[in-house]
Amino acid sequence: MNKEKKASKTDKNIEKKQNNKENKDKKPSKAKKHIGLLWLMGVSFVCVGLLLFCQFYFGDTVNENTVFYDGTTINGIDVSGLNQKQAENVVGAKMLDTLDEVSLTLKYEDRVWKFSGNDFEVNVNIGEQLQEVMSYGREGNIFEKTRLANKIKKEGLDYNISYTKLLAGLDNKIEELAGEINSQGEFSNIEFNPEQEVMFIIQESKNGVEVDKQELISRLDKAFAMSKQVEIEIPVVPVLPEGEKEDLVLDISMRSQFTTDYSTSSVARKSNVKLALSKFNGMIVEPNQEISFNQTTGARSEENGYLKANIINNGVFVEGSGGGVCQASTTLYNALVLSDIEILEVHHHSLPVSYVPLSSDAMVSEGFADLIFKNTTDAPIYIKTFCDDKTANVQIFGVGNKEGETRKIRSELVEIIAHNGDKIVEDVAGEYSSQVLYKGEYTRVKYPKEGYETKAYLQYYLNGELVKEKEIRHDYYWPQDGVVVEGHEKIGYGMTIPESDVKLIPAQKVTDTHLQNVRNKFKTTYPNAYEA
Predict the structure, then answer these.
(1) Where on the phi/psi map is residue 367: left (φ > 0), alpha (ψ -120 to 50), or beta?
(2) How do the residues of the chain divide into helix, strand and coil, expressed in percent and rounded to 5?
(3) How many CA atoms, within 13 angstroms, populate the side-chain half-sphere of residue 466?
(4) Burial, 404: exposed, middle or buried (Cβ in 10 Å; 0-12, 13-18, 19+)?
(5) What confidence tens digit (pLDDT) does each residue in 79-107 have?
(6) What is d(CA 521, CA 100) in angstroms, rounded to the nearest whole number?
(7) H-run or E-run covering 349
(8) How far apart are CA 87 and CA 75, in angstroms?
(9) How many Å apart are CA 29 and CA 23, to the nearest integer?
(10) What is the pLDDT of residues 235-268, one digit of tens each?
(11) Among 91, 92, 182, 287, which one is most buried in terms of CB atoms within 10 A?
(12) Rounded CA gap, 267 and 128, in Å?
């Protein structure tokens, strides 16, 4: 038992000695401790030396992001040691004090725009520019920042803020003058020669211009940073026309044509029709342009080349200067309608005319009745007119119709308006004394004529099929009373008056049969116009 305890005690002592030996091996030796300490001290000395070297070489460090470095000037004002807000107040006040010394002259070709500083609103917010100066010398690593900071101290930093930062209304001024200068590039001009086989000839294109606002602001910014008196040539960039010039002619085709017959007219009347239509031959009507027939043809006088021919006056055909001009306006009117051009003003005659269906005529008269139209298409229209000995013709050219699209004018007789028969007028003034002298003697001056309520429609066809129809006219051709003149003198004693061969016509009574007969007559005369 004692032997076992002794052996156990011996084993524990051996184990303890082994553990002590292992722990002793883990502890650093004194030599190693000295080496670590020396290394730490060396690194510390290097850092301190480096800092001392930077301090000695570059000078004192500064308190960053608070004040401007020594040697900093802005627009000639020393802001050393000032913070950003202080500098903003000092520099802003100085720039405002000298605002009346600012002048700006802008030139483009032969045009000049002049402004003074007082022509602009004022903006003293220059914080962004001051922040840019404040950040100089404070960027990069510590060596770079310190080097730049000491460079400012030694050499100084002179910074100029452009007066464009104060002129708050400058952008508006530039926008206004740009509106005066800017021009769109023009499509190639088209020369229209209606008498030539090749009617449309392309001319050269013309470039437009546009003010280069960004470049102008840049130039102004640089110039105002150097001086308060600035003169700048306005920079522009070319604006090229859109599309290909060859496409312009390719897009032009005949939109419509219309012909009226005047083969039975007198020489004078034919001459008037030709003269009036010739005023429109070769005319180019720009988009949204309005044209007046009366203004274009001028006064219907002998001085202007118009001759005397029959005109309608108060329901009666009488001789007047310029007779036949209404056929010219009517031919033009129908061509315009078929071209889908907007008609702003049109009038019908007091009596139906023979050369077009009802509600297709266009009566003109100086002073109170005109034909006015407006080009509502997006491109110019071109008018060609020509006449021979039998017909008057108008053709309208422009951007072509849609493929397969055609148009037609349809006329409609709504009602017949009954006339009131004859009206007997006594020849008090003796105007008809060669024909009638005594009471009971009669001569006819005019037959009564029935009137018509009519409408006209513009029809749109696509590949021969009617796709749309719109009403364009609703007219009333009022009936005309017959006029019979009776003599004024009383019959003498014993005189007898022969029975008059003038048969007085009573007021008309319109029947359904008569209405249908008139419709058939109109349809026979103008079969295409009166088709449903």
Answers:
(1) left
(2) 35, 30, 35
(3) 11
(4) exposed
(5) 888 988 888 888 888 878 887 888 999 99
(6) 87
(7) none
(8) 11
(9) 12
(10) 999 887 765 555 556 678 999 999 999 999 999 9
(11) 91
(12) 86
